[in-house]
Amino acid sequence: MKPLNELKIAIASDHAGFDRKSGISPWLADHVAVLHDFGTHTSDSCDYPDFGHPLAEAVENGEYDYGIAICGSGNGINMTVNKHQGIRAALCWTPELAALARQHNNANVLSLPGRFVDDALALEMVKTFLTTDFEGGRHQRRVDKVPIKTK
């Protein structure tokens, strides 16, 4: 795994995740190599797919190492980014789940429920997610079975 200060991170939210994104972005900007904010940039009502799809495409294409996606419950933006074949997004509510998402699922996007966690808990999950290695082994076999194989 790359050191934290070499990571390129994409982040996105809708209006319901905007405050949480604003709360964790300064720490990220100070600790990762690149932080790109795909929006939204206000708390005005908007649609999470408009920001989730560009984030997912950028992570899927290898422009960014990981993504952080935030909406009110975390569900909508998580469903959106998971529509992309190369994305393994995990909706997490605790640092333990964020660690397991990396260790067992090799998740490349962390989805957060902006209305249900505070900045401190969100930041703890982000730190855990970005510094936890994938264990591989038996977990790799399972991860390999996730994408739908086309004929």
Secondary-structure map:
Elements: E1 8-13, H1 18-31, E2 34-37, H2 49-60, E3 66-71, H3 75-81, E4 89-91, H4 95-105, E5 109-113, H5 119-131, H6 138-144
Parallel strand pairs: 1-2, 1-3, 3-5, 4-5
Explain how this protein is built.
The chain is an alpha/beta fold and 151 residues long. It has a single domain, classed as Sugar-phosphate isomerase, RpiB/LacA/LacB (Ribose 5-phosphate Isomerase B, Chain: A). 42% of the residues lie in helices and 16% in strands. It is built from six helices and five strands. The chain has a five-stranded parallel beta sheet, with helices on both faces. Helix 1 packs across helix 5, helix 2 crosses helix 3 and helix 4 runs parallel beside helix 5. The chain is globular. It starts with 7 loop residues before the first strand and ends in a 7-residue tail after the last helix. The model has no long low-confidence stretch (mean pLDDT 96).
Count the helices. How many? 6
Physical arrangement of strands within the biggest beta sheet: 2-1-3-5-4
Can you tell me the CATH architecture? Answer: 3-Layer(aba) Sandwich
CATH classification class: Alpha Beta
Identify the CATH homologous superfamily.
Sugar-phosphate isomerase, RpiB/LacA/LacB
Helix % is 40-55%
Strand content: 15-25%
Number of domains: 1
> What does the average pLDDT come to?
96
